[in-house]
Each structure stands twice: as C-alpha cells, then as structure tokens.
## 1
Amino acid sequence: MKLFQVFITALKLGCTSFGGPIAHLSYFHDEYVTRKKWISAHAYADLVALCQFLPGPASSQVGMAIGLSRAGILGAIVSWIGFTLPSALILILFGLGLSAIDVTSHKNWLHGLKVVSVAVVAQAILGMGKKLCPDKERITIAIITSVILLFFSSTLLQISVLVVSGIFGVYFLKSTEELPHDPIHKGKKSVGFLFLILFFVFLIVLPLLRTISNLMEIQYFDSFYRAGALVFGGGHVVLPLLQAEVVPTGWVSNDLFMAGYGISNAIPGPLFAFSSFLGAVSSASPNGWVGAILCLVAAFLPSFFLVVGALPFWEQMRTNKLIRKAMLGINASVVGILLAALYNPVWTSAVFSAKDFALVILGFLLLEFWKLPSWLVVIATVLVSFLIYT
C-alpha cells in the first residue's frame, strides 16, 4: 500500500511540476510536507541541503530520498518512476516523430505554466522561511545568501555559501528549545556503503568496458552514466556534458539536440529526462524505445546510488549536536538559495507584463490563503491563460 501511495503521489507531481528544479522542490514541499505530512519542514530542508552537495538532479534526488524513507529501496525506485515517467514518455514520443505532442506550438498555456510556477515557488519559500528562519540571525543568513547568489551565480559558490552558513550555525546560532531532529531514513550503514561502492565501480568499470567492447549499449550507458555522475547544479548544467557526448560522435545532430532541449523546458518533470529523448533519436540506436530507456536509466542511476548510499550516514550525522546546529544555518541558507532562484530564473523567465503579475498574485492567493492543491491551481492557470493571453 505504501509503495502505491508513493508512486501515485510522485506521478501526480510528475504530471504537474512545471518550472524547473527549484519549482519542483516547491511542489514537493507543498505535497510531501504541507499536505501529506510524510516529512517535517526541518527534515525536508536537511534533504534539500544534502542533495545540493551531491552530484545529479537535486529535485529527483529529494523525491528518491522521500520514497526511500517512506517505503525503502523500492520506494525510492517507484518514486523516481512516478516523477520521471510523464516527461520521459512525452520526450520519447516526440523524439519518435509523433507531431500530436508538439506542445511548443501552444505558447499561451506554456507561458501560463511558467507564470504559475512563480506563485508556487513564492508560497513554498514563505512556508519554509517561517519555519527555518524564525529569528533575525537566520533571516540574515537567508538574505545574505540570496544577495550573494543574485550578484555572483555559480554552483561552486552555492556550495561554499552552504558550508560557511553551517560554520556560522555551529558557532553563533543558539536555540532556546531542543534542536529539531526528525528521522528521515534509518537504513543500515553497510547497505549505504555498498551503494556508494557501486557508484564508483560503475564510474570506473564502464569506461574500461567501452574500450574493449563495440556494443553500443555499453557506449550509451557509459556516456550517460558519467554525465549523471559528474554534474553539479541540476538539470541545466548536464546539457553541455550530454551535448559533448552525443553531438561530436554523430549520435544526435545539433538541431535535434536543441529541439529536444526546447521541449524539455516546456513539460513537467525533471530536465534529466531529456536523456530519454536523446536515446530515442540517436542514429546509433537500433530501437528507439530501447535506446531511450537505456539512456534514461543510465543518467539517473548515479543519483539513485548516491541517495541510497549517503542517507544512512547523513542520518547519523544529523543526530550530532554540532551538526544539528550547523544545519540550522545551512537550512536558512537553503531558503536564501530558493529566494534568489525565485527571481532568476523563475521570475525573469515568466513575468513580463501586468497580466503576468496579476496571474502570479491570483495563483498565490489560491495556494496560500484558499489552500488549494498546486495541481488544481496549475490546471486553473492553463484555462485562464487561454483567456488573457489572446
């Protein structure tokens, strides 16, 4: 029963989570923290912080971790399948030439979806801020983090700010109450260690197999596994790595690559699902479906290994008093990261007119004060978009 609940919830998020990885985290917060109450706000922020440090798609990793905490390793798998399945199917069908899903021709409702993601992110940041920044010190950490990242945006700087915020938390943050610790996953460290070993084994062995074998399946798996294992900063950062793997080799033309990238930004779900499109259209693939599934699994497999491997150790670290004080600072910094992302890229890519702003505040009203579920607000926004963007 728990597996089914995890799958259905992730599938709903996979069908409605527009707007990129930062927006995904906001949709997740609304569903998993506010509505389902499967995880507390502090534990969720801890997870987001951990996934900021790990290579791979942060939003998908958070989803896997919540599935893992809810229903074990199978829970992590079905959570990933549910969240990734809608976007992967759309991209594969699009890649195989089915014009019926050419959603790029419907610019009005696509723009409406971008606009509503602003309201979703804003509501999530407000909710997280209330819980994670209850005093002037932590509010200051959030604002300073946001200002730094708005002026100087880079993945390395983002990680550095998190580290500095953690150090500040250890030395300067004090709580008048018991420091919060809500368990995420009580997995065995031996199992976690095994999955961390698997992560490195695949990373080392696949290139060796590629040099002694001409099988296209091994070449695919190696290229997409490395791309998923070595990228920090989320979906958009993986694109140059994938382009370097598939375009110079002649597997995918640059025009096809850019067409797939365009539609990847117009649909819900993780941007890493773009790998399924590349597998489907690759000239070296004897079967588009097989190539798509192989590339999709290879791109996400490193994230699965890392989440299952790191979480038992992370859970133990979180029980340490100094680590928990550090997490107070890190969690406040996470709020600042999301606040900076609310402006760029969420706001800057969606709000261009008074109509756009009106739709944002209407969406925020429905989410924050009428407490409507985000998927319902998304559907309502699509309908309204047809009326106001004509």
Note: Residues 99-103 have pLDDT under 50 and may be disordered.
## 2
Amino acid sequence: MKLATSIKLFIGLFLAGSLLTGCKNETKTQSPSTNEVASQQESKKQGQAFLKDDEATPNVLDIAIGSKDHSTLVAAVQAAELENALVNAGPLMVFAPTNAAFEALPEGTVENLLKPENKAALANILQYHVTPGKYSKDFLKKFKKLGQANNQSVQVEVQGDDVFVGGAKILASVPAGNGIVHVVDKVMLPPEE
C-alpha cells in the first residue's frame, strides 16, 4: 500500500512538474523575459542613428571637414548639398582633391562652380570623385577603371608605387567609418558626354 501511494505521489509530482515546465516554456514564447526585452531593445539601437559622436569612427565627410587641406572640397560639397550622401552607410571611396588641387584649376573655375545656378554641374564633378567600395591604394592597383557615383568611369593607372585615378595621384589614404578617403593632387573633371 505504501508503494502504491509513493508511486501515485511520484506520478502526481512528475505531472505537476511537467505542467509547470510546460507553462514556463509557453510563457517564454508569449512574453520574453526582462533580459530578452533588454537584449531586443539594445539590438534596435544599433546603426548610424544611434552612434554618439565621441564613440563613432569619423565618416568620410567628418574627415574632410577636419582637414585644413580640404576646405575648398567641403565648401563645394556644401554648395552642391551632398553632405548626406557622404555620411550614408557606404562603403564609399572618396578621392579628395586638396585645396592646392582646386587652386590649380583655371582662374575663376571654383568661384563659378560654387554659384547656385551651377549646382548640378558641381554635383556631377563631385560625384565623379566617389566610388562605391573601400579599397586600399595597393588593392586599387588591380583595377583598370572604376565606376563612379555619377555613372561614368575613371581610369586607374599604376606607375611604380604610385596609383593615379583619373590622372590624380593618390597622396595618402585615411580609413573612415563608412569607407576610405584617398587624398589626391588633382581635381578630376568628368568627360563630356
């Protein structure tokens, strides 16, 4: 008699435990635990919109703005209203002409391009300096041409250790959070179609 009672008690406890476990599993699938909710909220806070300036790797626009040698390029980007394009997720390769490169253009060219009525022409020139991707100077040696953001192509030439893109020599390269900035010694002008 004691054995039968013990067996019934054991079966009862086993069934009760199974029911509780089943309820716990069902509850987990219906409403996540506090840890799961916190984890889900944390994953929703990832991406550019939630990065803090002091924690984020500078993007290609930040790098240009922070360079005293690229103030003309920054003014051109602002005049063409292309700032948002340079902070997107990328990856982007920006071939960034120095101030000296802009100064080498025929007199009055930059001033003329910065006029509001020439915004489209300026944007086309600037987009000719942007390529999708994030390739180092050495990796660029494998290319003959690159497709630019203005839907035209630019030639890549290698002369010894030097790489020229659209006739502009890469002087330095700076990694960015959304790509890479290749500092170049010349403003690349897109061919007329």
Note: Residues 65 and 74 are 6 Å apart (CA to CA).
## 3
Amino acid sequence: MPKEATYRKIIHIDMDAFYASVEQRDFPEYKGKPLVVGGMPEGRGGVVATASYEARKFGIHSAMPSKTAQRLCPEAIFIYPRFDAYKVVSNHIREIFHRYTDIIEPLSLDEAYLDVTHDKQGIGYAMDIAKAIKQAIKEELNLTASAGVSINKFVAKIASDMNKPDGLTFIGPSRIEAFMEKLSVEKFFGVGKVTAAKMKLMNIHTGGDLKKLSETEIFRHFGKPGKFYYQIVRGIDNRPVQAHRETKSVSVEDTYQEDLITKKEMLSELEILSQRLSERLQRAQLKGRTITVKFKFHDFSIMTRSHSESLLINDKENIIQTVNVILENAPLEDKKVRLLGIGISNFELAAEKKKLDNGIQLKLF
C-alpha cells in the first residue's frame, strides 16, 4: 500500500436505475411500478436498457432480451428510451460535479469518477463531498445516486455498488486488502465469464485465492491482465482519473422492431445511421479512416466488418460509400438482422494538431 501522503481521494458516482428513475420522475403513473426501458417485447423484441427497482425484484436486468423480461414479469411496463431527456439530466449532474472538482472521468451518462484530492471548495473530506453531491442531485433533480469513496478507482467503483439505491460507502486504506481478499473474482475489473470460469477450474473463487499465486504464476495463467489482478488484490490501482480522454472511436446503432432480411433493407437503415454518425463527427470536429459495421442477428450473435480509407472522412457520402463496400462483401445469406451499428476510428486529430503546433502547414481536404 502507498504511504498516507500519496493517498488520493476518489469518488465513484453511479445513478440509481438512471433511465427508469428519470421516467418515473417525469411520469408519475410509472412510480412504484415495474418499469422496463428498452425494446418492446412484441414481434422480434429488443433488449432491456435498464429496469426500475420494482422490475429488478423479478430478476430483470440490463442487456436481457425484452421477451425474457416479459416472461419474468408479465405486468411490467415497457417503454422506449428518451436519450435526449437523459442527456439533459446528465449535463446537470456533470455541472454539480464541477462545483467540487474539474478532474472528472465520465464512464456513461449515469456514472463517473471524480478525483477530489484537492477539491475546489476546500472541504477536504471526500465523504463530505460525496454527501453534498448526492444531496444536490436529490434536491435539484429529484433523483438518487449511490457513491463509493476510496483511494483508488477500482475500490471506489465496487463500493458504489454495495448499498444501492441511494448508498454511500467508504472503504479506507486499512480495510482495502481484507476487502479485496473476500471479493468474488467476478467482481474484478476485466474478469469476464470465460476468465472467471477458468479461475474457478483452478479453485480460485475470491481475491484471497488469487492472492496465493505469485506474480509469475498469475502472468503465466492470465497474461497481461494478470499483472493488474496481482496488484489490485493487494489494493494497488494507480490509474489516474482522466479528465480528458482521447476519443478513440465514435459509433451509432439502432435495434429494429422487425428483422432486416435483405441488403436493400439494411442499406436503407445504414444510410440513416450514416447521417447520424456524420453529424456527431462534425460537431466534434473529428475525422477518421476506419469504418466498422456491426451486425447483431436474431440469435443475438454479433459480427463486425471493417474497411479503412486512405483519406480522413466524416461526411455522410463517404461514410455510406464505405459502408456499402462492407455490406456488399458481408456474408449475410439467410441472416436476420435485429441491430445495425456504424463506428469510425483511426482518428488523426491529435497527430495533426501536434504538427500544426510545430508550425507545419497541412494540406486541408
């Protein structure tokens, strides 16, 4: 563990059932009822984006097929998400964060890390800051958030999930190693179903079991992520809260009520997605070279196909031209598509800016 003088003060804020809570706030008729935000269960159905706590009592959770959710709770109310409304609320929450620190790392619309080691108001105590943030969210937005407080990102995130909803949990330096030893391996950052299954075959069920392996052994079994596991089980996580993360990709996607069967149907929807993607890129002043199209099929399997251009692009015409090349070459015979997505990556904005800063004149496209 680091010396006390080097401890950071990290808060992880996670809104409680965010989309569903906004809907229950804005539409009182949903309050106290099992509410599912996501695709409709009729026809081909969709996927749950989030569920109210009343719905979660039936075992409904995010990423679950809507038809499954309906079977678990026939009386559940299904509604489409209103992302514009959620974005407005998210911006207000972000403004509350900025009252205390500018070192904020958003993970999504409803959660973020905050480094309050040197808070703007000079409060000093991370728990007091977390309480103030939670209170402001409740008073100004009539919503609840859960907060985890610790000396690093990993433990703060785990802590925020411990006493939901409306929770506030502090795990201090003296408790971290004992806490990590009791933590199930599924809770470890980067441990998915496959890795967890491999660990259990090795009789590794908790952080304490994982701690018995030497650094060499853990690296041999799990590769590069093993080095992180070795450190985090000892309470060491030196990842900083990144206030300005470089954008590596931008994407848009849509889930459809009826399966798309022909490439003509898919191209029509991809044109709409291309327009949305182009608008996002131009607002952010980003251009990229690599276009990726995502296909999710009726059986929930996923296929992605990518194509790189020689020039940087962000306009609809060039995006859809590249998408069309991908679509023509994609093996889609006898496939029923339920979701389409388009992403763009391989940005060169940072490299170009560096050249400009060094006085090199670039040719503009």
Note: The first strand starts at residue 10 and ends at 15.
